[in-house]
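Anyone able to model this chain together with flavin mononucleotide?
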Amino acid sequence: MIAEKLAPLKIGSLVLANPLILAPLSGISNLPFRLLAKEQGCALVFTEMVSAEGLVRNRKAMGWLLKSSPEERPLGVQLFGSNPGSMAAAAKIVEEAGAAIVDLNMGCPVRKVVNGGSGAALLKDPRKAGEIMDAVRKALSIPLSVKIRTGWDEKNLNYLEIGRIAENCGVDALTLHGRTRRQGYSCKADWQAIAEAKSRLRIPVIGNGDLTSPEAIGHFFALTGADGGMIGRGALGNPWIFRQTLRFFQGALPEPPTLEEKEKTILRHFRMIVDSRGEENGVREFRKHLLWYTRGLRGSSEFRSQAAQWVKYSEVIRRVEEYFEKIRKVSFSS
Ligand SMILES: Cc1cc2nc3c(=O)[nH]c(=O)nc-3n(C[C@H](O)[C@H](O)[C@H](O)COP(=O)(O)O)c2cc1C
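re: yes, here you go
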């Protein structure tokens, strides 16, 4: 069964042309990555999670995480923290910086975050989770969402309880990643839980987990009836997933990127990262993207195995151009 149509998504006063959203991805969903997703039709992009405490204490040092440009708007900013006052103050800063929506991270499984009482730890403390939602809601005039997991572990699935708290606090949407904290990023995401949240809650429910292809996204919407779909790992090295999904729902033929388009996008993405992070950090940061972009491409194993040794901007550019030149020739001759 496949859903037939993608409906626009309304989160409070924010109206999105389609329900496809880019997930907050730490170390990944910075401005260059978000711009590429946006250009391919993604309706709403999120920053990676930003420490509320850090933002309040040293706005200048954290400011680069909020760096944005008009082309990517509307921009969502995700905050994490455990103190209602700091979360509210940080949300205010984010609103003043021009964000269209604030999201509260209540799902991060990383030990350092959880041990500080933030992220998924809040699923174990619904009262504190509610205090944070309440404080942030009162501080903000823009829409507010909360991103959670299904629970701490399989014995403590409390997504409906947290969802109801969110509703009562005036939160505008709930994003549900269909895994528990214990499950991390493995095993199949529980779309049934997302379907249940959708049928039981009044606020829009955005589902997340394993939305990795247009077909999967078609099944996801049909099964869950969710108001939105948030794409994480499916967009790594593949910003075209948004365009392809929109085309899929229009009944049009899929339009995979050509080799030329792939090469152009890689080079542009790389240039944007180096422009904002400098040569040394930029080259280091881009390596993982290079591996994602070239996954499964013809003869890419040699190229990929050498990528860790490249340290200069010009060298990466040359290697990418040579590699694509080579595979274009092979494609034409075979
Ligand atoms: C490298 C990485 C970084 C992530 N960073 C964040 C983050 O900053 N905030 C957040 O809410 N979730 C974060 N997530 C979780 C994703 O947003 C998403 O919930 C998860 O990957 C499941 O979706 P997927 O199956 O589409 O990848 C991260 C996931 C990965 C793999």
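The two ends are 37 Å apart (CA to CA).
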